[in-house]
Amino acid sequence: MSMSAETYPDDLRYHSEHDWARVEGEEAVCGITWFAQQSLGEVVYVELPAAGTQVTGGEPFGEIESLKTVSDVYAPVSGIVVATNALLDDEPARVNADCYGDGWLIRVRMTDPAEADALLSAADYRALLVT
Amino acid sequence: MSLVQVLPELRAGGGAQMAFDTGLLATAERVVARSYTWVPPALSIGKFQRVQLDGPLPFDVVRRPTGGRALLHGEDFEWSFAVAFPPGAFGAGSRRDLEPPYRLVSGAFREALEELGVAAESGRRGAYQRSPWCHASALQHDLLVAGEKLVAIAQARSDGRVLVHGSVLERRPPRHLLETAGRLLGQPWSGVGLSGAGMALPRAAVWRSFLARLQLGIQQAAAP
Q1: Complex ipTM value
Q2: Between 20 and 30 A from B57 (CA), which of A53, A101, A119, B34?
Q3: DSSP characters for B92-104?
Q4: Span B133-156, mean pLDDT?
């Protein structure tokens, strides 16, 4: 089941590859946006990196399989993975049901917290979707 | 210059075939299409599908770069195709839009079948059945003939490129392959095939017609 209402919370920062980051001090929780999960369809598997893995902003860090496709997932910021969402092992569709909450993907200790400032605001991301 | 680079048909084992397609997904700089047959027979599983191998098998087991579930392949009952699209093939704002490659490939194949007198339908039939077998359910861009899933289509995307896989099941696979694969996957196979549905089509004619429709579809998509 997918989140019914299209939404892009104002307290998140967004990457053009349809991923979001919630900055919490020197760390960022990351996931995919409503648009991304809606496009993918029902998520059936999520491949995430192990804790300790270096991820690079704008580069793929994992893959998502939905009923429709297998697709890269992109890191919005660079850093070291400190946690991954273990709930997705058994319930990958949480990505659809709550993409900004229980459907988060990874937590990253950012290499440079200022990198998050360069991401898109919710308004800018919404504008990107209509271009 | 043709909009589609067509590679020669390749008759080879599953490992070679999937290595080739994985390479296309990583490197295609123009639209590339190829058809192929699997020798020896193979069971292909989806990118993240898990299967416990057990003892000697009458087929190779390979992993596809695309998603989806298990398929049996063998030149006597099935043939496959792949279409790779380069970065930007569907416009700069389309990296998450999964539909255009599906519409193009599935639509071209449906039209190719119809040109040869086979009425194909696309679309999901009933609720999605969770099964280790690809043919247990049909999704929107799969093609059905006489109510059976004959053409299974799956997609993978990486670094802006798209790979679309297709498997055309012409007839029911041999019993010994089905029984062994069913045991490995924990579920008996279900499905028919073109011949099982009372039709048999020359592969070369289907492929030629598909390529012509694919090229036309790409031209139309690119038209201002």
Answers
A1: 0.74
A2: B34
A3: TT-TT--HHHHHH
A4: 86
